[in-house]
Design brief:
2 copies of one chain form a homodimer. Chain A contains 8 helices and 10 strands. With 276 residues, chain A is α/β, with parallel strands linked by helices.
């Protein structure tokens, strides 16, 4: 806590541009709560092709906030695509001030959660500012802020036991074998997916469960797969059948469903203590 | 050569169902050539959800043909999705008869090319029977048959020098770290893509070039990226800029374009001698 208002939270956008409407709504929610001081970095509104500014602009904003001792938590603005392009550099040569913060986000921000967890920082999967635009999005914003400000257990995914991690399935698949792959040993890995056909989910599960490092996890739980485009022809099994199948083939324990996904119901999953 | 007609070629479908129209057209082309005896396995027309029969049905047909001493070459019917589900089993405990055959295909069949190359078999990337349905597809069929029947150099990708491999980019990404990953050391790796947005190509290139085993390749060449859906907003660079960028970041040599892709112009790329 750095001022009378309460916890100081900075928002940066390591992937795509934040909607100004979402920013205004989230600022209003934070102001009404009165328990946090939300600072939306101007980089969130930059635009360069697909991204919220060039790699250098996004990395500089992120590193600036990481090094700022007055900031208690870093809240990623939204997903989309692009945080992988700066994740390795963002986690290198960490300033001491970066180690006393919480980092919250999901979806494409999972690349940063992985890199930062690997580097020993406190990270959690959870709703992001852009989620305020979803149906029921205000509840998602409060759930995230309740976790950031006071580690409210009501924000947590309800089935957590032991040490966990949560990832978008495609993001998890894309970071395997790269310099930002975290240690899955003994962790329960929660996955969720959005806008991928069943045949793609099956292919990604083949890849993820084929990884020897993922096979060291304690088990897998499946969140929601939302906005699944039609498979032509019908795939022959839904996402849970697919995940069960690949868990059985690979010897990973399937531990049931998880309350996470690309929707307003998305719960918080703190990543277990990193091994150092 | 096993009979008066010439080389005996079997077609099986380890992924999706072959079109009966494509089968008829390719049989007519082969009959008119008179230099090969084409045998389209009835499994090619089976259907089970997404696939040309269950995993067991597809694997059995494939293994049956692999063990058949009278067959000189195995031509994969088409891509789609699914050969990864049977690739590890298909490459296990190989019958001796499997070792004297050529295996030809691309796209999803790349999972089998990888597994079989790793197992010491002769494999090549090249057009498949279903390609006859493309504009100019008859030329693609002749190109493939000219390679299978008489290793016609005119079928080859024109820039080949040294030892090469060719993969659909998403397939390559999906097999990294699994039991069917081949040895890329010193090979030139040719990649092509279809129906993926630029941000997805960028994400997949991050994954592929982040792999330490891919970084042992001699270099990368880029085939065509066809049917690329619009990126919203415009990505900010085309597929060649993306591949150049990730090669530069990872220390891989970018060696220019390649004449392969999901189209009738797709050339043959024999995989270099496997290391045993």
């Amino acid at each position: 806590m750095t001022n009378g208002v309460g916890m100081k939270i900075a928002v940066v956008a390591p992937s795509c541009t934040l909607s100004r409407d979402a920013a205004r709504q989230v600022e209003a929610i934070a102001a009404a709560r009165g328990d946090c001081d939300l600072s939306i970095h101007p980089q969130c509104f930059e635009s360069d092709g697909h991204f919220a500014g060039s790699d250098a602009v996004r990395l500089n904003a992120l590193r600036e906030v990481m090094a700022d001792e007055s900031i208690d938590a870093l809240w990623f603005a939204r997903g989309g695509y692009g945080s992988n392009r700066i994740a390795e550099a963002a986690a290198a040569d960490l300033p001491e001030a970066a180690r006393s913060k919480l980092y919250l986000g999901y979806s494409d921000a999972g690349f940063l959660l992985a890199a930062f967890h690997r580097a020993g920082l406190e990270v959690a999967h959870g709703p992001m500012p852009q989620d305020v635009l979803r149906d029921g999005g205000e509840a998602a914003i409060h759930r995230a802020l309740n976790w950031i400000v006071r580690r409210d257990p009501a924000s947590l995914e309800p089935g957590l036991s032991g040490s966990a991690m949560a990832f978008n399935l495609t993001v998890l698949s894309s970071l395997l074998g790269t310099a930002i792959e975290p240690d899955f040993s003994g962790r329960e890995v929660l996955i969720e997916e959005v806008s991928e056909q069943h045949y793609r989910i099956d292919r990604t599960m083949f890849h993820v469960t084929g990884s020897l490092s993922v096979r060291r996890a304690a088990g897998l739980r499946l969140g929601r797969a939302t906005d699944v485009p039609a498979n032509d022809p019908d795939f022959g099994g839904d996402e849970e059948a697919i995940v069960r199948d690949w868990c059985a083939r690979s010897g990973l324990e399937y531990r049931g469903r998880a309350d996470i996904g690309h929707d307003a119901g998305n719960r918080v999953v703190p990543f277990g203590e990193p091994k150092r």
